[in-house]
Write a structure and sequence with these properties.
Elements lengths: L1 H11 L10 H11 L13 H5 L6 H28 L1 H4 L9 H4 L4 H22 L10 H5 L27 H21 L7 H20 L6 H26 L3 H4 L8 H25 L12 H17 L6 H7 L1 H19 L4
Length: 357
């Protein structure tokens, strides 16, 4: 019965007419199709400049901002590409059917033009990185925004330098461009094939976050911490598995019609995998705060309760409130998660940049 209903819906919604719109309206719809709310994921590109202690260096911060904007453009182009492939399937989804392409409000030619423009912008910004200096004095403007009593300062090991630690392998700008190319290749492979392979689909999602972290580190030419990648991989696996669980629960019998790979997942399997990854994430982050040289001489351990509560809160939203299908939406809607993020950032900033060494 469910299959016949899905077939009828697919037939009826195969081709929706697109009403003619002006250039401004089309541009707004293209930006909407690029899912600006999802761009919060690209905040991960600031992890390198933050933990390396270069947040107060104007040149490094500028490079991090440009890198983040480049990935916002890249991810926006990929979202349009994915929606172009999944128009018919998205029309069977209770929420994705309202996306501009699935709803029929945005035409394919405008969507393709927007995708190409966003891709070009991403690589233009990547080329701009090669023209920016690597080091510089701490940003005086940022320092003046703080009360003098806080004594805002960079980390002891964060010495302004013009030396590129990646010069022997092509330079930081070249590595960033390579990271951007790898991100595009991974996302295209995910949209075309990887999302249809059980478990590899979730690992592909995690790899996208790892590439963001890598790109953020090489963009500001700081050493790459293995702890950054370990925590990123585990947390992104947690989010990816939670997304699959929410899809299985929300779509129920119609899950396979929307996404074929969901037939390979079951709630017991997903819950078991989520349990394993949750435990590993908490342990990895805790070990990072004790052993990493960028953890503020173990002072960052005071943020462990925030990390644990944030993960537990997310699990509660996934299992009790049927949320978790879109981490960006959870971040923007749940006040508890927002408070955890703000609290963690405030304490980490105080530990890494305010407490004297």
């Amino acid at each position: 019965m469910a299959k016949s209903t899905a077939d009828r819906a697919r037939t009826l919604a195969a081709e929706l007419p697109v009403a003619p719109l002006g250039a401004l309206a089309q541009t707004r719809l293209v930006i909407q199709a690029m899912r600006p709310r999802e761009w919060t994921k690209n905040l991960l590109l600031f992890a390198g400049v933050f933990f390396a202690g270069h947040l107060l260096q104007g040149a490094a911060l500028a490079r991090a901002v440009i890198a983040a904007v480049a990935f916002c453009a890249a991810s926006g182009a990929i979202y349009i590409f994915n929606d172009l492939l999944d128009i018919r399937r998205d029309r069977l989804h209770p929420t994705k059917r309202f996306r501009p392409l699935a709803a029929g409000t945005l035409g394919k030619p405008a969507a393709v033009a927007g995708m190409l423009a966003a891709t070009a912008l991403a690589f233009i910004l990547a080329a701009l990185l090669a023209r920016l200096p690597l080091g510089g004095a701490p940003a005086a403007v940022a320092a003046r925004l703080w009360p003098p009593a806080l004594s805002l300062r960079p980390l002891a090991h964060a010495v302004p330098t013009a030396h590129d630690p990646y010069s022997t392998v092509g330079g930081s700008a070249a590595l960033f461009a390579l990271s951007l190319v790898a991100y595009f290749a991974l996302q295209v492979a995910y949209s075309l094939r990887l999302k249809h392979i059980v478990l590899l689909d979730v690992f592909a999602i995690a790899a996208g976050f790892v590439l963001r972290a890598l790109a953020g580190a090489v963009a500001v030419a700081v050493p790459i911490s293995p702890w950054l990648y370990l925590c990123t991989v585990l947390l992104s696996l947690f989010l990816g598995l939670s997304k699959r669980r929410q899809e299985v629960v929300l779509l129920e019998e119609g899950a396979v019609a929307h996404r074929q790979i969901l037939e390979e997942y079951s709630l017991p399997l997903l819950d078991q995998l989520i349990t394993v990854v949750t435990s590993a994430t908490i342990i990895a982050y805790s070990l990072y705060t004790f052993q990493s040289e960028t953890a503020g001489d173990r002072r960052l351990m005071v943020t462990i309760p925030f990390a644990i509560y944030g993960i537990f809160r997310y699990l509660y939203l996934v299992q009790q409130k049927r949320m978790g299908g879109n981490p960006a939406e959870v971040l923007l809607r749940d006040r508890h998660i927002q408070a955890v993020v703000v609290g963690w950032v405030a304490i980490a900033l105080f530990v890494l940049y305010v407490i004297p060494r």
